[in-house]
Specification:
- The complex is a heterodimer of chains A (335) and B (496).
- Chain A has one domain: Up-down Bundle (Formate dehydrogenase/DMSO reductase fold), CATH 1.20.1630.
- Chain A is 77% helix and 1% strand.
- Chain A contains 12 helices and 2 strands.
- Chain B has one domain.
- In chain B, 52% of the residues are buried.
- Classes of the chains: A mainly alpha (335), B mainly alpha (496).
- The interface between A and B is large, with 77 and 82 residues.
Chain lengths: 335, 496
């Protein structure tokens, strides 16, 4: 395998890490208005992700930064063709990050209500947006010779891309509710688990349809196997949750995500953004990779950096492993 | 306005705004780490109070720095895709390293620090704030390496019309970066220093006025003021020294920026330094400009002696035209500028005044720190209400100095986005006009400019509101008084 293929795989892994980690914290944000009955319960929910959401979010910075370093035209084309969806994602991430940090800084119901709206909106938009953008990239765009989009910004909103948006949002909601069942205790744990069981089948539908359409359109034998494993893992995740095994369910959802993301990126490989106008205009791993020297340098950095990140981020999850319930929430003490 | 103008305004606004938060984060997070170290070592209550109080203000600011930084990582691709494709082989590497090496550590360990009070062992918890704060500084190093490469491209060869990295070591040890890094970090400490001085002075003065009784938190404020004042003065000295080093590099690497900093129209030997000008500095022939000058000082700033010739704007234009061409290439992507003459002179009032405001506001900050230290010597507290007012106002000065410094250095390299290296590889430069995304419409670009500016504006109000609220409340706002009832073991020490 040459360096450019290794970097393609690494970028897939970074996106996987991002969607896995921030997927559940998007889900928690989306569910804030649905699962909590009062402010203490909302605080329980926010605090399940409190120490980790920022570290989770950096995965997207690294995924995008690595794309810049390893495949500059891919980075440039993805972000400039999906200009407005990416802008919306950025605005959402800005609002959401500030909202987590600021919502408890003033003791006023109105203050908290406003930030709760920001958290919910800010948690809906990015999974929808990334689902749209990543699916549109992997399934092809009307790219011209210059890497611009023929047909204007609306060309991005293909039926498949819209399905991708629903799939990632659905995954986040399911993943978030299972995460809450895993990380909370008492009534809210019951509620989150019950909600995941009820909403789960609905969340799996767009994922299943997306996998089937990808298979028909650009699949091969190995994507078929992977897609089948992914869907099986999705169904099993609900079965194990019903049996009260929240941890197993959470891990199985991870398997589902691996399947979906690898099939999505892998079915386009060696293209990274196929052009629907002319295959000659497609961006591929080969024609957009940086020089072997740059890739070599970055490989060394990633070889030491990535395991270190996994190690200390795992330690964080270990430190904050305890379930949180309403009785753990301290009284509000702010000026 | 065309796409280029809107994209430039957007980059300017979002970057200057982001850099209001960054220096305070860099400086204050290390200051907080020092305070917590003092607490862990001595066990004295006022060090704990300082850690909690300044730590809270640091976090309010930190959140904004983080979220506005996300935009930076994306906007090269969104608005400057032609630039990204041209320099990606070189420029992407430091950005990716910044994410993987610095941002990951910063975000993870800051989370551990915020939520780790009373859960982690004391020393491990202390290590977390050090990890997070040092990672912020490391991130500054990577991004300044990237920026310095645009000012002075090194470590490359020129292949197929694009720069290609051939030495990451050269890029990371670019002399431009080695000078810019301490300069920028010292600027961050200057911000943190006056921030401490301003708020502490106000608390000292208020408590002194309101009651004659001994204030239990007095040591918090007097220690903070002293620490802040020393940090402010030392960092100003560091800023001046490193700035001098940068000036000498600029003289070699970007002579036009040097001339523009002075609005120096004609070549002079020895060259005098203009302290203050009145009249219209925008004219390239220096008609109608009177200036107060220090003879031969500019020669010294440029080359460490009092006789070196410093080239003026007029001569440099010809030199640049001969070397890099007098007209833009004919290319439809360049829009109106296609085939037009290249204007090699930056906007002189911006560079001239930007340079002076940078130095001036930095000097005021240092003077304010010195004054505050003198006025509070041996436990004195001035009674006049001017004392806290001026101290609070001085908080703004290093922020202004930082912003003007960046505006100067980025506007001063126009019309280039990648400035040609006079002693580097031929052919590696890029005009800003060539860098903008070709496939993005004015409408899209305006939408993002308006949306980002509006959101940033609202958030600025919210951040200042919270900072003021917490700064006023003092120690009581961050450390609940001990209660008689036994605290349950189960309750979290900190929760959102």
């Amino acid at each position: 395998m040459d360096l450019s293929t290794i970097w393609f795989c690494l970028i897939v892994v970074l996106w996987l890490g991002y969607l896995f980690l921030e997927g559940f914290d998007f889900g928690v944000g989306i569910l804030l208005g649905l699962l909590a009955r009062d402010n203490t319960e909302r605080r329980v929910m926010v605090n399940t992700i409190g120490p980790v959401w920022d570290g989770n979010e950096v995965w997207v910075l690294v995924a995008v930064g690595a794309t810049f370093a390893a495949f500059p035209p891919w980075y440039a084309t993805m972000l400039s063709t999906a200009y407005l969806p990416v802008l919306l994602i950025l605005l959402a991430l800005i609002g959401r990050g500030v909202a987590f940090e600021y919502r408890g800084k003033v003791d006023s119901a109105r203050w908290r209500r406003r930030w709760d709206v920001v958290i919910q909106l800010g948690s809906w938009i990015p999974p929808l947006g990334w689902g749209l953008v990543l699916t549109a990239m992997a399934t092809g765009l009307p790219l011209t010779k210059d890497g611009a989009l023929s047909g204007g910004p609306l060309a991005l909103f293909t039926p498949l891309a819209l399905l991708g948006a629903l799939a990632v949002a659905g995954f986040s909601i399911l993943h978030g509710s299972v995460f809450l069942a895993l990380k909370t205790e008492g009534e809210i744990r019951q509620r989150a688990g019950g909600f995941a069981l009820r909403i789960g089948p609905l969340c799996l539908v767009p994922i299943a349809v997306l996998l089937v359409l990808l298979q028909v359109r650009q699949g091969s034998a190995w994507t078929l196997v992977l897609a089948a494993v992914a869907l099986l893992a999705g169904v099993l995740a609900l079965v194990r949750l019903r049996a009260g095994r929240e941890g197993q369910s959470f891990a199985l959802l991870g398997v589902l995500l691996v399947g979906v993301v690898v099939v999505l990126f892998g079915s386009a490989f060696p293209a990274v953004i196929p052009s629907t106008l002319d295959p000659a205009y497609s961006l591929t791993v080969a024609n957009s990779a940086s020089s072997p020297y740059t890739l070599g340098v970055m490989t060394w950095v990633a070889a030491f950096g990535t395991p270190a990140v996994l190690l200390y981020q795992s330690w964080t999850y270990w430190v904050f492993r305890r379930r949180i319930g309403t009785k753990h929430i301290p009284e509000v003490h702010v000026p | 306005m065309d796409v280029l103008d809107v994209a430039r305004w957007q980059f300017g606004i979002t970057t200057v705004y982001h850099f209001l938060m960054v220096p305070l984060t860099i400086g204050l997070s290390i200051v907080v780490a020092i305070m917590q170290t003092a607490w862990v070592v001595t066990g004295k209550r006022h060090y704990l109070a300082m850690t909690k109080f300044w730590g809270k203000l640091m976090l309010v600011n930190f959140a904004m720095g983080v979220v506005t930084g996300i935009v930076q990582e994306f906007q090269f691709g969104m608005a400057w895709s032609s630039y990204s494709k041209f320099v990606g082989d070189v420029f992407g590497a430091p950005l990716a390293m910044e994410g993987l090496v610095a941002f990951m550590v910063e975000s993870t360990f800051l989370g551990l620090w915020i939520f780790g009070w009373e859960r982690l062992p004391k020393r491990v918890h202390l290590a977390c704030i050090w990890a997070a704060s040092l990672a912020s500084t490391v991130s500054a190093y990577f991004i300044l390496s990237a920026n310095s490469w645009m000012q002075h491209p090194v470590g490359i060869e020129f292949v197929d019309g694009k720069p290609r990295l051939n030495s990451i070591w050269a890029l990371l040890t670019n002399n431009t970066a080695l000078a810019a890094f301490p300069h920028t970090v010292a600027g961050g400490f200057a911000v943190a220093g006056t921030f401490l001085v301003g708020i502490s002075a106000w608390h000292l003065w208020r408590k002194h006025r309101d009651s004659s009784a001994e204030d239990p938190d007095r040591r918090v404020w007097s220690s903070s003021l002293k620490l802040g004042a020393w940090i402010g003065m030392i960092s100003f000295a560091a800023v001046a020294l490193t700035g001098d080093a940068q000036g000498k590099l600029m003289f070699e690497q970007q002579p036009m920026k040097m001339a523009a900093a002075e609005a120096l129209c004609h070549t002079e030997a020895p060259a005098s330094f203009s302290v203050f000008a009145y009249g219209d500095v925008s004219r390239q022939d220096c008609e109608n400009v009177k200036s107060i000058t220090v003879p031969a000082l500019l020669s010294f700033l440029a080359h460490n002696d009092f006789s070196t010739e410093v080239k003026g704007v007029g001569d440099l234009i010809h030199q640049y035209q001969a070397k890099y061409g007098s007209n833009y290439p004919v290319d439809p992507k360049l829009g109106e500028l296609s085939g037009k003459p290249i204007d090699y002179v930056p906007v002189l009032p911006v560079t001239y005044w930007g340079f002076r405001f940078m130095i001036g506001f930095g000097g005021i900050a240092a003077a304010a720190a010195l004054l505050a230290l003198w006025l509070t010597r041996r436990g004195r507290i001035p009674r006049t209400k001017w004392f806290p007012r001026l101290a609070l106002l001085s908080i703004a000065t290093p922020f202004l100095a930082n912003s003007f410094g960046w505006i100067f250095t980025e506007m001063g390299r126009q019309p280039f986005v990648v400035v040609p290296n006079p002693s580097g590889v031929d052919g590696v430069w890029m005009y800003t006009a060539q860098a903008v995304s070709s496939g993005v419409s004015v409408g899209e670009m305006l939408t993002s400019l308006i949306a980002l500016t509006t959101v940033y504006g609202v958030l600025a109000v919210v951040e200042v509101y919270l900072l003021v609220r917490y700064a006023r409340a003092g120690v009581a706002g961050v450390m609940p008084p001990p209660t008689d009832t036994e605290k349950s073991e189960d309750v979290l020490a900190f929760a959102y």
